[in-house]
Amino acid sequence: MSDPTPAVPGAARTDEAETRPNAGAAFGISLEEYLLPAARRIQLIGEDGTLLAPEEQGTEPGHEYPLPSAEELLAAYRHLVIGRRVNDQAYALVRQGRMAVYPSSHGQEASEVAAAVCLGEDDWLFPTYRDTVAVIARGVPPLEVMVAYQGTWHQGYDPQKHRVSIQSTPLTTQMLHAVGMAKAARLRGEEVVCLAMVGDGGTSEGDFHEALNFAAVFKLPVIFFVQNNKFAISVPFAKQSAAPSLAHKAVGYGLAGERVDGNDLGALLAVLGRAVELCRQGQGPFLVEADTYRMQAHTNTDDPSRYRDDAEVKEWEARDPLRRMTAYLESTGALTEEVSAQIARDAEDVAQQLRDAMNAETELDPLELFDHVYSVQTPQLAAQRAQLAEELSRSEHQEA
Prior knowledge:
alpha/beta; oxidoreductase; branched-chain 2-oxo acid dehydrogenase activity
């Protein structure tokens, strides 16, 4: 079919991309400068816990990020300490046979905490299987989170109550769920921001690209938060993508991207906080890449020595987010011995609760497997449930 627009000598057609609003105008930069991440990753606090000079922070015009207040940092730091304790306690419980599996986020806790605390009460978090610390920091009781890893229940918490989706084992399906939730909220006129978490390996899945494209086309209030911990199980990042960074993938879909030091709690809160506010103002979506590292094995069934060496792990130990934020808060006087001791007690209380719950013997009802799969049970499930009930009854009579 021919183009009905009459040709005008010497006149070029106006491209749709050239006529769309420049989202960077409010920051005094071009649309391209707004969409592309800053040339260097954003980092506000150095690895030794000192506040970096402005010229060392990676910020540039349109990509400035002031450090959050001492009160905000201290509140997030409490979740950081608890998160580290939860990770280490859960790992120990797996070794003791009290939990079936646990994907630890030891070393990534700053990213986990920032993802949770940057959201408002009515916003939604869509985590992966590794994001237990984020789920707990969002307000879900730790005991309700861990039953899934113990294998005693499908999922222990109510997503609607906590505005936290169930932890996703299939890679990147939660990103599509986040986009769908954001679209539904938009149709209902609700000011809801959705944050979907994903690992670097998940960005190689088709759902990742579909989610970004849909969110960008409809300008949905979604933050795609990528924790680049350098390995998709055993596959290093260099074998996953040739892009300069995962944040650079955003511009191809027409959304803004930013790269941040994933072990710098202050920088994470600043970058994600601004992304949330801009999404709430209708300027989303955003892609934020956290540059971090998985210190421990993928899960307890993994042997990381087969694909990385100890020297690499040692290098990242110096960048520990907990040690870094402790040093910074102590230097400012915000973290006193009294406050530190109270936070440590809070973390140990959580660990003790986990130990008590995981060590308790639980009576399981196999028929519960069929509950809550659908709101109305399908005929197939009902038949399967009846078959299992008959087998269990027959087994009980034989034992008697």
